[in-house]
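Narrative of activities, Objective 1.

The group set out to show that a structural description can be obtained from nothing but a protein's sequence at a throughput compatible with the screening campaign. Below is one input-output pair from the validation batch, recorded exactly as produced.
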Amino acid sequence: MKSNPTPARDRAVVIGASMAGLLAARVLADHYTEVILVDRDQLTGGHEPRRGVPQGRHIHSVLGRGDEILAELFPGIRDDFAAAGAASARIAGEVRFINAYGVLPRVEVTTPSICATRPLIEDVVRERVLADPAVELRDNTDAAGVMVDGGGRIRGVRLVARDDHRDLPLSADLVVDASGRSGRSVAWLDGLGHGRPPEDIVHSNMGYATRRYRLAGSTGRDQFIVVAARPDRPIGMAAGVVENDSWVVTLFGYGSHQPSGAEEDFLPQLEAIAPRDLFAAVLGGQPLGPVVTHRTPTSIRRNYQRMRTFPRGLIVFGDALCCFNPIYGQGITVAAQQSLVLRSWLESGSDDPRVFFRHAAPVVRGAWDIVSGADLSIPEVPGDRPLSVRVIGRYMSRLQAAAVGDPVVGHAYLRVLNLLDRPTALMRPAIAARVLRPGAAVRALAPTDPQPTAVGA
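Output recorded for this entry:
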């Protein structure tokens, strides 16, 4: 079922058929006669990781706001996920979130969220998108560049078949660059004389090591467990139930604290950080594959809204617009939020991409502030920390401490982490008063303290 369809344009092309591209295609199909999805990988389904999504073997999440938007764009999709084998977890009723001060209280903030591997999530959404007769997939195909008319407007893309290297020019009224963190548009725009967008970069230098298990033992009612990194201990972990009654367990660390990825190191490194019940269930469980690693050196926000000129006929979307440190699980949800901005832009009748970028900027900024602030709280992460950043950092430390013992603060904090509210919600007078009152903050766990197994379980 489509929402608020408007008179169709002719053809839109989406470069990249990962989650951002799929969400863009879903919205574009309400407004264009034909939507062509282009991807360099051979997309065969089967819930298998693919080269174009290098982080696909690691833990993934759809945050609360992302789950709401998926349900709006694809009515009944929660049933589709369940039929494909996905599990679900209630934020925080079945999610254990441990920060530097302890376990956040059990407060509900949204409906159950999807628990599945990235390939399953992507395959289910792709199947729904391609069920629309307006959408066509051209996989195993590269986008080599854009085509421009005499007035400087983007009029299509130059495609190249990966099997026989044929040139396949494709005209289009709109091109959406959802090509991922590489951001093809940066070079294309520079080559066309528009320059490059101003960029904000945080050099998080994050590394991951992941292994899939069938657990032996119980983690209580928890379906997802997170131990956050903190300034005095720049490592953490996340583990969650996925399809086929298995769990994905991911270790992560900044800089020199990145997990090694060696099979013999995985369990000792997990023991140092994991709650006792989870580690016992992993230790007695069955590994379902090798340890796999991934590195993410930077988070990058490209400020296209600040470019002096930008050609009509082109939109930049998803990770190509802003790519985050993946450990915060924001990528899918921010892409979903951008899809609503894209829908509003199309419904307005505007063809000026700068209008889209101006409205997308606050969506990106909210998530960016969370990620960049958390990363810059780690001393190993290089970067300027002006007085404003330091003051907010101190406030956030007090807020995280207060959130452990105060369900009202905990509820507000979880809503922001799930992108249901903007970070400014944590500065509201009613919340700030609870955070700043004497005795609200509690002692941070020492690096040698055992992690609690649960609070209020």
